């Protein structure tokens, strides 16, 4: 793949800026027009002529440093340590004050809807989620850009909190898996919207396996996983629609709307979960 030092516009979509050029002819191409090949990204014309490239619209990998992904992993590790994740240590008050549960949220502890995504119940829990986050984020963040990637993560996290409160309001829920499921859902939605088959990609099969494991393993927040998955898929689809219409504001507005619905829904569900005593 070859890049230019300044952003130009795609030769097929003049309203879209890009810093990537076709490795065959040098024409600037946007993400919709990129086709990975053994010698870099090709435009549709060169890809058709070669007849050998396989179109992978998402997760094709680039050279940009995934700063947001690294930061999210760092915050999760920090939250794990401060929450009592030291070897042989007991969980601290921060763990219980930051975990997600409906009644405390109804009592005004709204931060739990977010902080719960940066706490983990054990070293294996943390390690599994962070490996997944790195695998997905290191490929997906450069494709989407840091802003859209972070927005997807936050919206997916809120969607996961909504799902967890919906199905398990009285449980103390922690973990980044809701947000990570959302990233997988967004990636699959983008692949499908661009004409690909998510099940033919590594991310699609990874999502299938994780959904199955969510129903098989114990102590897993099914609501958190499915809520994050749904929110992420909807937000990812919205960004693709906005890209096609040449109006990024549509994607951002839809993403914000999904996040607000998840947030307000979580607050309403939390209020409904508070026991009422009569007599």
Automatic annotation (TrEMBL):
A Gene Ontology molecular function term of the record: serine-type endopeptidase activity
Keywords carried by this UniProt record: Hydrolase, Membrane, Transmembrane, Transmembrane helix
Protein name (database record): Unannotated protein
Family: Belongs to the peptidase S54 family.
Gene3D superfamilies per record: Rhomboid-like
Residue stretches making up the Peptidase S54 rhomboid domain: 108-238
CC per GO annotation: membrane
A Pfam family annotated for this UniProt entry: Rhomboid
């Amino acid at each position: 793949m070859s890049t230019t030092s300044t952003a130009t516009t795609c030769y097929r979509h003049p309203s879209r800026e890009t810093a990537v050029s076709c490795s065959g002819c040098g024409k600037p191409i946007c993400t919709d027009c990129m086709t990975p090949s053994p010698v870099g990204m090709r435009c549709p014309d060169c890809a058709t002529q070669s007849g050998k490239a396989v179109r992978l619209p998402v997760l094709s990998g680039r050279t940009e440093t995934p700063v947001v992904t690294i930061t999210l992993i760092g915050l999760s590790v920090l939250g794990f340590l401060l929450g009592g994740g030291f070897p042989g240590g007991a969980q601290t008050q921060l763990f219980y004050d930051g975990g997600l549960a409906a009644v405390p949220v109804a009592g005004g502890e709204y931060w739990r809807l977010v902080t719960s995504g940066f706490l983990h119940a054990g070293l294996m829990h943390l390690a599994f989620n962070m490996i997944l986050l790195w695998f997905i984020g290191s490929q997906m963040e450069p494709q989407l850009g840091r802003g859209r990637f972070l927005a997807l993560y936050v919206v997916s996290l809120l969607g996961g909190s909504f799902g967890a409160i919906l199905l398990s309001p009285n449980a103390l829920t922690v973990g980044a898996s809701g947000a990570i499921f959302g990233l997988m859902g967004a990636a699959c939605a983008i692949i499908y919207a661009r004409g690909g088959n998510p099940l033919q990609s590594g991310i699609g099969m990874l999502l299938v396996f994780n959904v199955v494991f969510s129903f098989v393993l114990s102590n897993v927040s099914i609501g958190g996983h499915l809520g994050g998955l749904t929110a992420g898929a909807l937000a990812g689809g919205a960004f693709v629609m906005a890209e096609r219409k040449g109006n990024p504001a549509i994607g951002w507005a839809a993403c914000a709307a999904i996040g607000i619905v998840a947030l307000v829904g979580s607050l309403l569900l939390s209020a409904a979960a508070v026991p009422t005593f009569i007599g």
